[in-house]
Amino acid sequence: MKRAGASLALALVASAACAGCSRSAVPSAPQADAAPRPVALVAPDAAPASADTASAEAGSPEPSSIAADASVEAGATPTPPPPTHGVYLGRKLARPMSHLGAAWLDRAGRDAVQRPSHVLDVAGVRAGARVCDFGAGSGYFTVHLARRVGPTGRVFAVDLQPEMLTLLRQKLTREGLSNVTPVLAKASEPSLPAASVDLVLMVDVYHELERPDLTMAQLRAALAPGGRVVWVEYRAEDPNVSIKPDHKMSLAQIRREAAAVGYRITQVDESLPQQRIVVLAP
User: Fold this and answer.
1) What is the DSSP annotation of 162-225?
2) In this structure, are strands 264-269 and 275-281 parallel, antiparallel, or unpaired?
3) Strand pairing of 87-88 and 91-92?
4) Alpha helices in 100-161, H assignment, sequence order
C-alpha cells in the first residue's frame, strides 16, 4: 500500500496471501501437474465478439490476452457503492484465510501451478523496483519479489495478521533477505506514504478484501507515477479449478469491479494453468 502524502489508511481486510484459497477452510489444492496454457494476444474489448470470448462468459476459460480496457475514462474516479450484507457489485465477498492455514501457502507443488517467476515477468517487476506484496501471508511471493528487485529495491510485505508476519520474518531470516519491510495493516490506520511503490501485487487476495472500494482507492494514492496493481485470481469460468466459488472470479466480474473504482485493465494473461493475471493502471 502506498501511502498518501499524509499516509494512506489501508482498508485491507484480507489476510490475502491466499494462494488461491488460503482461507479459513482450505479448499483442495490445485493440480500441480497442469500444463501451462498457450498464450494468444488478443484485444477482447476492441475486437468483434468471437466464439472464444463468448465461451469465456458462458463458463469456459478465455484465451490469454493483452487488452487495453477503454471503459474507464482518463481522470475519472468512480465511487462504487460499498458492500452490503457481504455482497459487492453482485459478488459474495470471501472470508480471509486464517494464519492457521498458512502451511497451504507453502505447499509442495505450488511452484508448478503458480509459476512465480512468470507472474513477476508479466507484472514487469525489475531490479531496483519498490513493490508491495499486499496480503503477503507467510511470504511465498515476498521471497520471489525480494530476489527479483535485489538489494537496490524494496519490498513492503503487508498483512493484517501478526502471526502471518511472524512466519514471514522467520522465512526472511532463513533466506538471508534484508530488503523487505513487513507491514502490519489495520483498517483505517495510516500505512505507507503516498507515491511510495511502483507496483502492488495481490495474489489471490483481492476477492478477500472486506472493502474493495476503499482499499483500491488507498492503493491509488500509494502508487508512484506510472505505477500499477496486479491481481492474480482463480478462474471462475473453469469448472476444473477445485477452489470454493467465492474464492474465484470471472473475467467479466474483474472488469466490472476494476471499472467501478476507476482502474483500467492494461493486460490480461491467461497462461497459468488455473489463474489469470490482470494488470491494472489507475
Assistant:
1) HHHHHHHHHHHHHHT--SEEEEE--TTSB-SPTT-EEEEEEES-GGG-S-HHHHHHHHHHHEEE
2) antiparallel
3) antiparallel
4) 110-114, 116-123, 140-149
Tell me the C-alpha distance between 29 and 168, whole Å. Answer: 21
Residue-wise pLDDT for 26-74, tens only, equals 333 333 334 444 333 333 343 333 333 333 333 434 444 444 444 444 4
pTM score of the predicted model: 0.77
Rounded mean pLDDT of the chain? 80
Instruction: Give me the domains of the chain, ranges plus CATH numbers.
Output: 51-281 (3.40.50.150)
Is there a contact between 132 and 203 (Cβ–Cβ < 8 Å)?
A: no
- Under the banding of pLDDT at 50, 70 and 90, the label for residue 267 is very high
Distance CA(179)–CA(246), nearest Å, equals 34
What is the DSSP pairing of strand 275-281 with strand 223-235? antiparallel
